[in-house]
Each structure stands twice: as C-alpha cells, then as structure tokens.
Design goal:
Number of helices: 6
Radius of gyration: 24 Å
Helix content: 40-55%
Largest sheet: 2 strands, antiparallel
C-alpha cells in the first residue's frame, strides 16, 4: 500500500463515537479512512487485507455480529493505523477521550517500533514583554515515539485551551474588582 492520507479525529467525531456501539465505531473509522484514501478501505478491500470475508465486516458494522477475534481486530487496527483501544465504546466514555489519527502511520515505514522515537516535533516559542522586547526564545526539536506523539500534541492543545480559559477567568475577576472599586468610590452601600 502506498502512502496514506491521515485524518485526526475532532471533538465532534469523539462526541459522535461516544454514542456508537462496537460496529458503529468500526464503520465510522473505516469510512473515514476510506474517505481520505478512496477505495483503499472499502468493506471488500479491508476484508481482503485482513483475511476475512466481506460479509464478516458488514455483519460487524451493522451489529449482526457483536465481536471480532482479537487477532483480526489487531490486523484491522494496524491496517488503518489506529490504536486498538479506539474500537472499544469504553474509550469514549472517559471524561475527555483523546483524539487519535486514522491512517497516521503508513505501511511504507519498515520495521518501526512504536516506542522508538520516530516523530520530530519542532517547538518554537517567542515570548515578548509588554513593550515588545523579546525576553525568551525557544526553538527545540523533540524526538517522540509513535505512542507519545499524539498524546503530546493533545497535551499541548489542552495547555493552550487552559491558558485561554484562565485568561477569560482573570478578565472576569478583574471586571468584578473594577466594578467593586467603582461602587466603593461612589460611596454606595450594597444591600442586594
């Protein structure tokens, strides 16, 4: 198989997946893989890749068959380059399920080990003072394993979101403080 086009799941995808059973999750992942890699992940092509009949894949996706053997599921997860645990409905029942990439590792990568550093993440940061003077600069390339890479990216996204929420909270607190100061200057009494 040639280079595959990856797809990173979104919050909306994770929300949708949280309402699906095993077969629905399997179908969603397979269809998303096929959407970005047309013809490579049809029911027929996937069944051929993993050595089962197309009817087995269809039965799983329609809920007529509730499970697959662990070795077949392992083959499917490898072909679509997704962590095997994302096929379990329990994965999406956590407070914040982590996004994952479908077709994230292509088959032209030979003999890789999921624990060996194979990704290179470049971190660049320029921190400026209020007057615009650069006071901190960071430009680092961090080697990460396949297992670390998606989790690391997710953690950075969560950190950015946390900073935005913190900034909004501080802004609200500052507004409240300013309102109290104005009230205090006006000599008001607050009985309500």
């Amino acid at each position: 198989m040639n280079e595959l086009i990856p797809y990173l799941t979104t919050k909306e995808d994770l929300s949708k997946l949280s309402n699906l059973d095993f077969g629905g999750i399997h179908k969603f992942i397979r269809e998303k893989a096929n959407e970005f890699n047309p013809g490579k992940f049809t029911v027929n092509s996937l069944s051929e890749m993993v050595g089962v009949s197309p009817s087995t894949i269809s039965k799983v996706e329609t809920g007529k068959q509730k499970k697959l053997s662990s070795d077949i599921l392992d083959k499917i997860s490898r072909k679509m380059s997704v962590p095997i645990e994302v096929f379990s409905p329990a994965y999406y029942k956590t407070e914040t399920p982590k996004p994952f990439t479908i077709c994230g590792i292509t088959s032209n990568v030979q003999n890789f080990d999921v624990l060996d550093p194979s990704y290179r993440i470049q971190l660049s940061l320029n921190a400026y003072s209020p007057s615009g003077v650069l006071y901190k600069e960071l430009d680092e390339i961090v080697p990460l394993s396949v297992l670390e890479s998606e989790e690391f990216i997710w953690e950075v996204e969560q950190l950015i979101q946390k900073i935005k929420i913190r900034r909004e909270t501080w802004s609200k607190k500052r507004s409240s403080l300013e309102e109290m100061n104005e009230w205090s200057k006006a000599g008001g009494t607050k009985n309500d």
